BLUF domain-containing protein (Hydrogenophaga taeniospiralis CCUG 15921), 141 residues
Amino acid sequence: MLVRLLYVSRAIDKDCSKAIESILDVSRAHNMHNGITGVLCYGGGVFLQAIEGGRNAVNTLYNHIVADPRHTDVVLLHFEEISERRFGGWTMGQVNLSKLNTSIVLKYSERPEFDPYSVSGKVSLALLEELMATASIIGRA
Ligand SMILES: Cc1cc2nc3c(=O)[nH]c(=O)nc-3n(C[C@H](O)[C@H](O)[C@H](O)COP(=O)(O)O)c2cc1C
């Protein structure tokens, strides 16, 4: 059974470019092995991540991620059973939210900086849909 989970968290180190590289390297190897796909967005010291896959695999990974000392204030925004994946093309895609076209961000928020803590999980998912539609998600083989 497939599920999708969405959470937001705050990076401990505000300049998290090094942490992101190592998170993505480990994630891509680990996720491929465990049938996990998704997207990791970051910007303004905030992570927004969607993960999807088997229910057990997603729960195990989420518990692991919550305990990671590189971030804090982890808030679960959305969890649902799904019949198909949305991010099936990415073992873990990436998006730098601070480099996004402001009009995409403004479409879903009051101010030009996207803050997943202040909007509903549905709105954050809608932003991810928009990122898919506008080919803003970067992947690596
Ligand atoms: C924001 C964030 C997102 C992460 N996403 C993933 C992920 O998608 N897959 C993954 O395996 N690890 C992810 N990690 C890293 C895990 O917390 C953990 O460090 C990694 O799975 C290695 O675990 P291990 O050292 O027990 O093997 C993420 C960490 C952070 C801080």
Remarks:
- The longest strand covers residues 71-82.
- The chain has a mean pLDDT of 93.
